[in-house]
Amino acid sequence: MKTFYISTAIDYVNGSPHLGHAYEKVLTDVIARFRRMMGDDVYFLTGTDEHGQKIQQSARAKGIEPQAFVDSIAPQFEEMCAKLEISNDDFIRTTQDRHKQVVCELLQKLYDKGEIYKAEYKGYYSTRQEQFLQEKDRNEDGTWPEIFGEVSEITESNYFFKLSAYQQWLIDHIKSHPDFIFPRYRAKQVLEFLSEPLNDLCISRPKDRLEWGIPLPFDPEFVTYVWFDALTNYYSAVADKPGIWPATFHVIGKDILVPPHAVYWPIMLQASGIELPQSILAHGWWSINGSKMSKSTGNFVEPIEFVDNYGVDALRYFLIREMSVGQDSDFSLDQFLVRYNSELANNLGNLVNRTLNMTNRFADATIPAVADEGEPEAALRALWPKTRDEVIGLFEEFQFNMGLERAFAFITATNAYIEQRAPWKLGKSEDPVDQALLRTALATMAEALRLGASLLLAVIPGSVAKIHGVLGYSAEGDWKSQLEWDHRLTGNAVEKTCILFPRPEKKS
């Protein structure tokens, strides 16, 4: 079985993790968990990008060595992954020897093939983006876009990779592989970029300007351009692990689709004789309260602190429920609390506690066997396979927000079923018919809860595990076999209560 290999972009350690970092990890984790649930052999990589001029400058500003600087920041990203319950199989740092060795091997291979040459370059350079610029990068008024920061004109000798020689090959590959860029409409953006002639890529920086990087194996007076270094992580992490490469999906932000991931990376691989990834998934950006995220203005969400305040599954749920993959979305505490209260606490949480409470009151805390089903049970039972199949189909297409909507519609229907059957009324009756209806109602509530919760496993795994636990359920076998309505909980002892999502206090 081919490994489902999925990766995130590696985070640049020039600052602390923010909401965008958290979203990318959670999105990729949901995909990874879902594919495992579907039976795939998944390998999930994330990590940190630790070389380059900005790191060197930040370290000097603190009066410490660059390695000490990145060693102080990288653990924050590992802590964030742990806090968000990210199920990554590996965490790569570009300062690790295993990575640097592969970068040098690729560089030497390309140099030996004649794909890298030395030339003098005169042009404009953005320190912030650590890249050379062209005239076409200017604004219409001749100024440079703010994203480039300070731009200076420099002349220096450097090594160049023959990017331009592969331009038509890449155009043909994108057109003949419609799944290479996801969402597909972003392929148009890449092809528009490729409609202009490509320049060869400067893949070195002289050591007298930048020391903090991987030295070129064929000329130690130069270090490797940070993008050539960083992009190689997806391959370097698994180069010694047979059967994993090529990647199934690289999950990245839309801002680094063009040119790094959709132009530089596939051409680097093709020139090296390495198979290309199946697809690059480019997600959107989060704004906060309608404005761009900014630490300086305080318009900022610190993921670890937020989890401490509201719980990991609440944040995971909101990020996946609120954003349509590929599109932009806005994060506001008010909207978060709306979803938290209406969907997690009042809908799912309420169903859990109604089920436990009534099973304790009317069945000695033991889920009864179902008696004869009536029309309400038949209607809810008929809704289940339709819901299950829709959710799985939507998840397979990365439409997680819509899948969650369908799953919660089933949970809402289960709560409506409880109102219709009114077990609290049946429990007061001594009529054998009513008692049979009561047993059926309690069994149906428990089964619907088990199944509905199982659809949420990839998104809120901790909460689903708690639900299964209070129902006395140990999920065994493959996940899809667990999605059959079969009253397998009959006879299970249940807990008295379970507060999954406590009422939050709004924190500013």
From TrEMBL:
InterPro entries: Anticodon_Met (IPR041872), Met-tRNA_synth (IPR014758), Met-tRNA_synth_2 (IPR023457), Methionyl/Leucyl_tRNA_Synth (IPR015413), MetRS_core (IPR033911), Rossmann-like_a/b/a_fold (IPR014729), tRNAsynth_Ia_anticodon-bd (IPR009080)
Enzyme Commission number(s) of this protein: 6.1.1.10
One protein family per Pfam: tRNA-synt_1g
Methionyl/Leucyl tRNA synthetase domain sequence ranges: 5-136, 148-356
Enzyme class: ligase
Keyword terms: Aminoacyl-tRNA synthetase, ATP-binding, Ligase, Nucleotide-binding, Protein biosynthesis
Molecular function terms, GO-annotated: methionine-tRNA ligase activity
Function (record text): Is required not only for elongation of protein synthesis but also for the initiation of all mRNA translation through initiator tRNA(fMet) aminoacylation.
Family: Belongs to the class-I aminoacyl-tRNA synthetase family.
Protein name: Methionine--tRNA ligase
Native organism taxonomy: Bacteria, Pseudomonadati, Verrucomicrobiota, Opitutia, Opitutales
